[in-house]
From TrEMBL:
Cited SMART domains: FBOX (SM00256)
Residue ranges annotated for the F-box domain, each copy included: 16-61
Domain of life: Eukaryota
PANTHER family: BNACNNG10540D PROTEIN (PTHR31672), F-BOX PROTEIN CPR30-LIKE (PTHR31672:SF13)
Organism of origin: Protea cynaroides
Entry protein name: F-box domain-containing protein
Lineage of origin: Eukaryota, Viridiplantae, Streptophyta, Embryophyta, Tracheophyta
CDD domains: F-box_AtFBW1-like (cd22157)
Length: 343
């Protein structure tokens, strides 16, 4: 009897297994809409799914859909006291419903970043930039050279960037930028050093595809973005952006234009600021990206913030004032204000 019951049970199990499978294109479509945390789990389902989820074409599709739909958004915070990073998810539809207390209660995850190891106890690092969910980290050690890593918090993998070939003893600023060029699918790190007493800045470019640095033509601009080098440049339209002047102006607190570095053709360009007296006379400005478009944030005595959007990239007349936000009395400084998304 026991054997007969076991065989009946086996038959019922076999009958419960579907005889037909979902088409592969439908599986791809479903998986490409899921958060990364689920994809990492689903890689263990079968070999087919493992290969699919790790395929570069699938990864591009997943990133593209996440950017278009404003889904799968997250924010990585740096805790300066504990020298760690924490991650929290963002639900666009619920952002306006959060109070400050509710935000503090949101579930966050501590990330074991690659610099959080015993031999990195002297770590004083920066986030040089982030794109497609990949932060670029730079370490500063006491009496030691810098180290740069490309880090994937989802897979916990990282790649060390080769040492920079040239170091300079005296400079006005030493800044980095990190970006991705979708046409070539290249990830690039840009290093800009403004040497003391020189008008131009020395520029070196690292490409992940070749895993090497190269020198390019000097940058003819003087970067004036506030809080250099602690806040990275803005990546939009496959270019990195800073506030800049044509030459140093010690007695001026404003900027003349926006300098850009195109990651595809490696060319420098000048972009105009919005044609507004509020913008021109404002000393507290910040760059950002909204909906994939370059934007400028301007603050007036921490009472009002205007957000200007460049609707057509590179065209002066395409600047439009998108928002005017009043009573930001709890904002200490504009450098801590970052646009995330809007819907």
């Amino acid at each position: 009897m026991a054997k007969e019951d076991e065989e009946k049970k086996k038959i019922r199990v076999e009958e419960s297994v579907p005889t037909e499978y979902l088409p592969e294109d439908l599986i791809v479509d479903i998986l490409s809409r899921l958060p990364v945390k689920f994809l990492l789990i689903f890689r263990c389902v079968c070999k087919l799914w493992y290969v699919l989820i790790n395929d570069p074409v699938f990864i591009k599709m997943h990133i593209s859909r996440s950017l278009v739909s404003n889904s799968n958004l997250g924010i990585i915070f740096r805790n300066l006291v504990r020298n760690n990073f924490i991650f929290g998810e963002v639900r666009v539809s619920e952002l306006h419903n959060y109070s400050s207390d509710e935000l503090e209660q949101q579930t966050v995850i501590e990330l074991n970043h690659p610099f959080k190891l015993p031999h990195y106890l002297g770590f004083l690092g920066l986030v040089l930039g982030s794109c497609n969910g990949l932060p670029c980290l730079c370490s500063f050690f006491y009496n030691a050279k810098k180290e740069i890593l490309l880090w994937n918090p989802s897979t916990r993998r990282n790649q060390k960037v080769p040492s920079i070939p040239e170091e300079y003893p005296k400079f006005d600023y030493n800044v980095y930028g990190f970006g991705h060029e979708p046409t070539t699918d290249y990830y690039t790190i840009v290093r800009i050093v403004k040497l003391s007493g020189a008008l131009d800045s020395v520029v070196a470019v690292y490409s992940l595809s070749t895993n090497s640095w190269k020198r390019i033509e000097n940058m003819p601009f003087y970067l004036t973005s506030p809080h250099l080098p602690h806040f990275p440049p803005v990546l939009a339209n496959s270019a990195l952006h800073w506030f800049a002047d044509r030459e140093p102006r010690p007695n001026s607190a404003s900027s003349e234009f926006i300098a850009s570095f195109d990651l595809q053709d490696e060319e420098y360009r000048e972009l105009p600021l919005p044609d507004s007296d509020f913008v021109k006379n404002n000393v507290d400005m910040n760059l950002g990206v909204l909906g994939g478009q370059l934007c400028v944030l301007c603050s007036f005595l921490r009472i009002r913030v205007e957000v200007w959007l460049m609707k057509e990239y590179g065209v002066r007349d395409s600047w439009e004032k998108q928002f005017s936000i009043e009573q930001l009395w709890l904002m200490r400084t504009l450098c801590h204000l970052r646009p995330i998304c809007y819907s």
